[in-house]
Write a structure and sequence with these properties.
The complex is a heterodimer of chains A (about 500) and B (about 240).
Chain A (H helix, E strand, L loop, with lengths): L1 H6 L3 H27 L2 H20 L7 H4 L7 H16 L1 H4 L3 H5 L5 H32 L9 H24 L5 H17 L30 H25 L3 H21 L5 H12 L6 E5 L2 E5 L7 H14 L9 E5 L21 E4 L7 H15 L2 H5 L5 H10 L5 H8 L9 E3 L6 E3 L1 H12 L2 H10 L1 H4 L6 H8 L12
Parallel strand pairs in A: 2-3, 3-4
Antiparallel strand pairs in A: 1-2, 5-6
Helix pairs in contact in A: 2-8, 3-5, 3-8, 5-8, 5-9, 8-9, 8-11, 9-11, 11-12, 14-15, 15-17, 17-19
Chain B lengths: L1 H4 L7 H20 L2 H20 L6 H19 L8 H4 L6 H26 L8 H26 L5 H18 L15 H23 L18
Classes of the chains: A mainly alpha (about 500), B mainly alpha (about 240).
Chain lengths: ~500, ~240
């Protein structure tokens, strides 16, 4: 019995070191995480990031996000947090040197590489926090009632991985250069080079940056985007791992088999990602883009509601209800056979240039067809209403584009009269945001023109009670929609004063 | 003592003694100025100022003014380390007030800074060079903010080497400022912009505020105003 009591404590110090060292790493990692997340630059960066994101997401995409755009919108703001994490992780790594406690730490249970791992784990914690923020931002967009489309996990990973990359770089930098002024100065250099060289670059080198923007604001169906998002996430993750494992190697972990294998794996991942993302747009996507731009009817899903057929890309079919409300509002005000004449609302997008350039769409020439774009909400709603009214009054979208007569008054009144604030919407559809004088009316396809006299007459008509105006329009429908009707004639038919403004198209 | 013998010259003995100590301080202070940080900041700043010229092609006024802003920021980041003094606790007992010691450090650096800034401005091609006076106000503001941050850290926390923390804060502020400046209170304008003059009124205001902060923070507090309950046991 006495032998058991004396031998029992003996094995503990022999078997303890490997386990105890990991416990020490995790304890130090918890401490460093708390320190890192409460440093002033990190707190300020997180506060600004969260406030900015909440402020912007409240009104982003006019409440009708396409999730294949919303995922890219999560990428830029985390770079700010990454910058603060880089500085602070570097600062924390140099703490023992600054206070000259390196010698004291050397006698502790934790080897130097173990302390580096603890710092890297604190960076991982910051990246996870950013991942939570990115997830929250995307979930908010996805839960908006008007959301359509599909997000890409690769695009969503870019924000957290950028933070991991920058933080890992901060840790590695402290192992490479012990001067405390290296990190801030290097960041200025990086920002400056990114400003001067990053934007001018085209092609595969563009994808070496953490966050890669687009040159166009068009919303494409998610299968036509053609961005190597998954490869880019792999590249970023591999690069972050490479920097982090390199920091461990430089901290005296060079003899660890695991560290050597990890560096090799990380470099392989980075190279695979870099090669994968540099191959450009796949052939199949290019073909699909041409098909969607030239013959969209082949990929459309059509839904019939009342007399109107809505043909949209499959991801947009949930939006049919929003379009139908606008079409029904316009039809309800129209007279003659326009209330139940068959109409086809066709969704179109110019996808051949991908996300590199914006292009205008030619108007549809077939009678009774109207174009609707891929974006919705905000100014897109009155623009679509104008297009529908144009097709109802003139017969087709192409003739509405070239129209230069009194019918413009009827078109604009049909489009705007049922809107909550018609005059505000009039300003929103006119290119110069004016509500008097002549102006161009923006549209998804060919822009329309309003003369001063037509604007004056429209404003007079909008000031009348809606039902009275509707009765006048319905009564004079045949004359109001006759080709080449003059603005003065329209004024007489509607029983309004003859407008005094200019009546010449540009 | 020889100090008492010079009383007839109109100077009090104390002032005379202070001047003597100050002169004796020049060499040791010059040795503790972090010249490497200033040289690194200055060197990188010159590179930033020269980049538009080196990159070839036509240099726009936008590129010119932003190159100079980057240069000024680099130098300010280097200058954030100016008040770093690992031996601060041991030199606190010298018979010269902190404001004079800090002023001495700044005085040693300012001529070099002036020469450096002239070189940086001259490196930008003439057709893209913004009005020198206005852009100098911007650079001086950055420098004054860096010094104010360092002086504040020394005054509040008695920090030995506040440089890195101050540089990090200054850099985060520099990144955030163009994003968060309200449009009606313009700061970062381009030459030719109608708001250029307004913006430089704002820069002058900021410069005055930063200089005032430097002046206030350089003075040694008579009494440490820290809440005893909030201080960690290790510091007390």
């Amino acid at each position: 019995m006495t032998t058991t009591t004396t031998t029992a404590p003996a094995p503990t110090p022999v078997t303890a070191p490997p386990g105890a060292s990991w416990a020490a790493v995790s304890a130090l990692a918890r401490f460093e995480t708390r320190k890192l997340l409460t440093r002033v630059p990190v707190v300020v960066a997180f506060a600004v990031y969260v406030a900015w994101t909440v402020w912007r997401t409240r009104v982003s995409f006019d409440g009708f996000p396409a999730l294949q755009d919303a995922d890219r919108a999560t990428q830029d703001a985390p770079l700010l947090v990454g910058l603060a994490v880089l500085l602070s992780a570097n600062h924390a790594m140099l703490r023992s040197r600054r206070h000259d406690t390196e010698r004291h730490l050397d006698v502790l249970v934790l080897p130097r590489w173990g302390r580096t791992v603890a710092h890297l784990l604190s960076v991982v914690a910051a990246a996870l926090l950013v991942a939570v923020c990115v997830g929250g931002q995307f979930a908010w967009e996805a839960l908006k009632p008007g959301a359509v489309g599909h997000g890409s996990p690769g695009e969503l990973l870019v924000g957290p991985l950028s933070v991991l990359l920058l933080g890992g770089f901060g840790v590695l930098l402290a192992r490479l250069v012990t001067a405390p002024f290296a990190a801030p100065l290097l960041i200025v250099l990086l920002l400056f080079l990114a400003t001067f060289l990053g934007f001018s670059d085209d092609g595969w080198t563009r994808w070496l940056m953490p966050s890669v923007g687009t040159y166009s604001v068009v919303t494409l169906p998610s299968d036509l985007i053609g961005r190597p998002a998954a490869w880019h996430a792999l590249y970023l993750g591999g690069l972050a791992l490479t920097l982090m494992t390199a920091a461990v190697l430089l901290s005296g972990g060079a003899r660890l088999r695991t560290a050597q294998a990890a560096v090799a794996c990380a470099v392989a991942l980075t190279l695979a990602g870099a090669v994968g993302q540099s191959r450009g747009v796949p052939e199949s996507v290019t073909e699909a883009r041409v098909r969607a731009s030239v013959t969209p009817e082949k990929v459309h899903t059509c839904v019939e509601r009342d007399a109107t057929t809505y043909c949209a890309f499959p991801e947009w079919t949930p939006r049919t209800g929003d379009w139908a409300r606008t079409v029904d509002d316009v039809r309800a005000l129209a007279g003659g056979d326009a209330q139940d004449r068959p109409l086809v609302v066709r969704q179109r997008v110019e996808a051949r240039y991908g996300l590199d350039a914006d292009a205008t769409l030619p108007p549809l020439t077939r009678p009774g067809e109207v174009t609707v774009g891929t974006a919705w909400g905000g100014n897109r709603v009155p623009e679509f209403a104008v297009a529908v009214a144009g097709a109802l009054v003139t017969g087709s979208e192409a003739t509405a584009g070239g129209m230069c007569d009194g019918r413009m008054v009827t078109v604009m009144w049909l489009a705007l009269a049922d809107r909550p604030d018609p005059v505000a919407d009039l300003r929103r559809v006119r290119i110069d945001d004016s509500d008097t004088g002549s102006a161009i009316v923006v549209s998804r396809t060919e822009p329309l023109q309003m003369t001063s006299a037509q604007t004056e007459l429209l404003r007079e008509l909008l000031e009348l009670p809606r039902d009275e105006a509707a009765a006048k329009v319905k009564a004079g429908w045949a004359e109001l929609t006759a080709p080449k009707v003059t603005t003065d004639r329209v004024a007489r038919v509607l029983g309004l004063e003859k407008p005094e403004g200019e009546n010449e198209c540009l | 003592m020889p100090v008492t013998a010079t009383r007839t010259a109109g100077n009090t003995p104390a002032r005379e003694a202070r001047r003597g100590v100050l002169l004796q301080l020049v060499r040791p202070v010059a040795r503790t100025v972090p010249w490497w940080a200033l040289a690194a900041g200055g060197g990188l700043g010159l590179l930033a100022a020269a980049l538009p010229r080196l990159s070839g092609g036509e240099v726009t006024p936008w590129a010119g003014v932003n190159a100079l802003r980057a240069a000024a920021l680099c130098f300010a980041l280097g200058a954030a380390f100016l008040l770093d003094d690992p031996a601060r606790q041991t030199t606190a007992a010298v018979p010269v007030r902190r404001v004079l010691r800090h002023a001495l450090r700044c005085a040693l650096v300012l001529p070099a800074a002036a020469v450096w800034w002239s070189a940086a401005v001259l490196l930008v091609p003439e057709e893209a060079r913004p009005p020198a006076g206005d852009v100098t106000v911007e650079a001086a503001t950055a420098l004054a903010l860096a010094l104010a941050g360092a002086a504040f850290a020394v005054r509040r926390r008695g920090a030995g080497r506040p440089g890195q923390a101050v540089a990090a804060s200054l850099l985060v502020a520099a990144v955030l400022a163009p994003l968060l400046t309200p449009s009606e209170w313009s700061l970062f304008t381009v030459p030719g912009d109608p708001r250029w003059a307004d913006a430089h009124g704002h820069w002058t205001l900021l410069l005055c505020a930063a200089l005032l902060a430097v002046a206030v923070c350089c003075v040694e507090p008579v009494r440490r105003r820290t809440l005893r309950t909030l201080r960690s046991p290790s510091r007390s």
